[in-house]
Structures are given as C-alpha cells and as structure tokens.
Design goal:
By secondary structure, the protein is an alpha+beta fold. It has ten helices and 15 strands. Its cofactor is Mg(2+); Mn(2+).
Length: 405
C-alpha cells in the first residue's frame, strides 16, 4: 500500500489524501490547463452517463454498444472469488474550511485478532481470514469522532467477530456490527458518564488546552463499513454515507441513507421524544441533518448509533464496490458513479481521454469520482473508496488504442 498527500489552493485550501492498493496509484501532477481539460472531459463523461437510457436490468448508453466484450468478466471457481483485486481511496477537503472526513482500509483485518487465530480449521477458516475492511467516516462538528472511528472500528469489529466464532454455521454479522458500533459510540461519548472536570489551566493558557480531555459530546460522524470476503459482502451503515455495488452493469445500493425526513426515521425520532424540524433542510431538533451517527451525545436518544446491516452473497457479476461520503452522493447519482467507475476500470476512459486519465485502477476510479463531484459543485468534504472485485475485460478495439497510447 502506498500513501501520498498533496495540498492545493483553488478558492481555499484543498487538502487531498490518497491511498492506492493492488498496484494502483494516483497521479497528482499536471499543469493548470491539463486540470481544466480534465474537468471538462469529466463533465462530458458525466453528462453522457447521466443521459443514457436505463433498461430494467442493465445500464448502458447507446454509444456503448460496441463494448459487448467489455461487459464480460473474468470468472473463477463457482461460489468463491478473490476478496478484491485492487482498491483505492481519495479524500479531499473540497470547498470546506476544515477536513472532517476520514476513511479506513484494513486488509485481512480478522487475521490480526488473536481470538480469531485457530478458531476454525480447514479451508473454510482460511477463507474467513481473507476478509478486508473498508470504511468511510463523515464527521460533523469536528474531525475527532471520525478519526476515532478510523483508528478503532476495524479493531473492535475483529474482536466482536472473534467472540462470536463457532456460534452456528455462519457468523452473526448483524450482531457483531451492532455491538461494534455501540462500543465505539460508547468510547467517543465517554460511556454516557458525566464529563470529567478538566484540570485547572493558567490564565494565559490557550482556551482549547483542556479540550482533549473531554469526551466528544458535540461531535459526531456517520459511518459506512464494508467487509469484503470471498463469498459475501457485509455492509453496515449509520448516517448518510453510502455503499453501492456494481453488479452486471447495474448500480445496486447496499445501504439506505438515514435522513430525518425518512418516514421510519422520523417516526423513531418522534417516538423517542424528539422532533424533526425543517430548518434549511430536515434536521433532528433543527440541528443535525442525519438521524443516525456515532457520537453526538447531546442529541441522544433521538440520534441513534445503531447501524443497518446488509449481507449479500458474491456472484460472478459483481464488478466493484463504491463507498463514499455525501460529498459525492449529493451531486452524483448511484448510476452515474458506477458508470464513471466502470469506464475507468475497463480502460475506456483512459483510451478516450489519454491526456487526463492515465490508468484503469481502483485508485484512478476514486480520483475520477472525486473530481467529478468537485466539478459539479460539491461543497462538502469528499471521500471515495473503490474496491475492484473482478477485472473488467477490454475488447480488442480499446486494447489497441491503449497500446498505441
């Protein structure tokens, strides 16, 4: 895994963090004119994808008819596939003043837990170890809870999974995810205990000097977590970040946003004694624009940290998985995001725009989606994680163009 960081100033600070896995990289070089040309080409590609006809079971524009070979996938043994071929992540501050997003990637994260070692023998146990953890955390009120989730969530989940091994034939993922989210939520809110009294500070000391000793009572974060294994994908979501799976060219949402105006969420908030107020958008108590999050002690019990968990079996049509914060989803639909990522991973984007798109890795796809969100006017932090599940084949036409370039 390679990690790079860069900063830029276009109408304000724009801090960018990128991680590429499986041989992927993110190229941060290029002149201003090249960046402008890249944004224009992204807009053209995004409009083409958004305006394409959407059949019931397949998403494909009329210009894609020559890509029938591109739609075919490399297959493996029935019922079992590599957990991932490559992965890439990009996180940028965007047009915000502060960076409050975070993401986490922990490959084979169950193997690092001592309680998991030797829990099961044979090939089934080995396959369970080959599970990778990916997550996006969108903080609000500060970055502390998002950063705490980045450091702790995969560790806590590995412990909870280890405690539940051997109970039944399948791991109770819903129970393990719920327990993990509850534990991390308890850690960042101080276990709902009264806040400790900060030590006395000299008069000349910085006002924020003792802030690090206080629990994060007014800070919170959404969390979308994906565990990708050889046989199934497990997604847990708490908030309005989102996970979308591309399956056979169709965008399949694996999570549902927790918005205060969602009927069941509004009913839950009101049943707990809270209110949903339309104050520049629907908000819990007129404050928070999401009805579930980790942290936000001062809004409990109206804002819940309980995740919704989705477990899907892997199929030979699974192509890639996208996790992102609402900085992407506020301006890019599921279908357009999958279209852009698919064009990148198949090599079509690099062949059509060789001066601005140089690769076809998951990191390149994450970078393209981030730049598309910026070009469409996203005003939030933007974090995108792309996990390549199967290699998309490129037909002879595009392969020849790639070789010439």
């Amino acid at each position: 895994m390679k990690e790079t960081s860069a900063t830029r100033n276009e109408g304000g600070p724009a801090v960018c963090k990128a991680v590429a896995g499986g041989g992927g990289d993110v190229d941060g070089k290029g002149s201003a004119s090249a960046r402008r040309r890249r944004r224009l080409e992204l807009c053209r590609l995004g409009r083409a994808a958004e305006g394409s006809p959407v059949p019931a079971k397949r998403i494909r524009s009329g210009s894609d008819r020559s890509l029938s070979a591109d739609s075919s996938l490399e297959t493996t043994a029935a019922g079992c596939w590599p957990s991932r071929l490559s992965h890439g992540a990009v996180s940028v501050i965007g047009r915000r003043r502060e960076m409050e997003d975070a993401f986490a990637v922990a490959l084979s994260f169950l193997a690092s837990d001592p309680s998991s070692a030797g829990a099961k023998d044979g090939s089934e146990g080995e396959q369970e170890q080959e599970q990778d953890f990916f997550a996006v955390y969108d903080g609000h009120g500060g970055a502390r809870v998002a950063e705490a989730c980045r450091e702790r969530m995969h560790v806590v989940l590995a412990e909870e999974v280890g405690l539940r091994r051997g109970v039944g034939s399948d791991l109770p993922w819903e129970e393990a995810m719920a327990a993990s989210f509850a534990r991390v939520d308890g850690e960042v809110t101080g276990g709902f205990a009264p806040p400790p009294k900060p030590p006395p500070q000299p008069a000349a000391a910085d006002d924020d000097a003792g802030a690090g000793n206080l629990p994060y009572r007014t800070v919170g974060s959404t969390a979308v977590v994906a565990v990708v294994g050889q046989r199934r994908i497990v997604v847990a979501n708490c908030g309005d970040s989102r996970a979308v799976l591309s399956r056979g060219g169709v965008a399949v949402p694996l999570s549902t946003d927790h918005k205060p105006d969602r009927p069941d969420e509004m009913q839950r908030v009101e049943a707990a004694g809270g209110r949903v107020i339309d104050w520049n958008g629907y908000r819990v108590l007129g404050v928070l624009a999401t009805s579930r999050s980790i942290g936000d002690y001062y809004l409990k019990p109206y804002v819940s940290a309980e995740p919704e968990v989705t477990v899907v079996d892997r199929t030979e049509q699974d192509e890639f998985l996208i996790l992102a914060s609402d900085g992407l989803w506020d301006v890019v639909s599921n279908e357009v995001a999958c279209k852009i990522a698919r064009n990148c991973l198949s090599g079509r984007a690099a062949s059509k725009f060789p001066e601005s798109v140089t690769g076809r890795t998951a990191a390149d796809a994450a970078a393209l989606l981030t730049e598309l969100a910026m070009s469409r006017g996203s005003r939030d932090n933007i974090s995108v994680v792309v996990v390549e599940l199967q290699r998309l084949k490129t037909n002879s036409r595009w392969s020849s163009l790639l070789r010439l370039n």
